[in-house]
Amino acid sequence: MIAVLNIDWQTLADALALGGIYALMAVGIGLVFGVLRLVNFAYGQLIMAGAYALAYGSQWGLPLWVSILFCFAVVLVLSALLDGLVFRPLRGQSPAVMLVATFAVAFLMQSVALLAFGSLGTIATSLAPLNIPWDIGGVEIRKIAIVTVVVAAACLLLLRGLLERTTVGLHMRAASMDFLTARLLGVRANRVISGAVLVSGLLAAVVAVMKTVQTPLVTPDFALRDTIVVLAGVVLGGLNRPIPATLGGFAIGFASGILGGALPTNQSQYLPTFLFAAVIVVLLLRPNGLFTRAGRTAERV
Questions:
Q1: Is residue 87 part of a domain?
Q2: pTM of this prediction exceeds 0.90
Q3: Which position has the higher pLDDT, 4 or 106?
Q4: Number of structural domains, the chain?
């Protein structure tokens, strides 16, 4: 028998923090899908690489800001390599071929991390002060909960500005609506794809920084489960458009945080069951996504 959920303000605060991280992940995944029509299963391994860079940067005695820059550099370099070695050569292939390629990249990166760093993982302690709670009205809210929500909102606003106010962003939007026509009108395909992949990589680096605060132990499967859950959330919200995809990521992260904090420890194994059962029910009722208008024509990005 499942016990009655006991939801308090502490659980709500932690769920908001997790929802913010999942929203950022959803934006990065949705952006690449919008341009390439590709679900990038290697996204979680980019976050894992950034987390390792942050952890080892602190162990090497680097200043915090240098460790964060190192994290961003590692993720961006890997994103550029992923674009140049996988996405660009396979752009003319079927979506199934590219999907299998991202699977292969994901497990390759995980295997490399396992061989290089071992299975026990390493601890990232440089951002540990963000886990110290603030007492607000008798509720202990961790600093990372507030920082995550603020950073997620700021990144979403900046991304919206990029898509609506810059030439690269306008090209991304044009390519997302009709890639072939956009190319005929002079949009450079490689520039659009590289821009989307690198922006997605920037968001992955931000997630790596935020995630290591909540989960300091970095292992080869770091963020793997989160990526699967976020992919479900993106589909839940509406895969073809950015705002519904982001809302879907936030919603599934918030729900995961609520259930994870409210369920008793001996019943935590029921969390994935509840989560994915809810996703199936919603998709049966709203196959185009929970946050898309019924009958609306699908769009990219």
A1: yes
A2: no
A3: 106
A4: 1
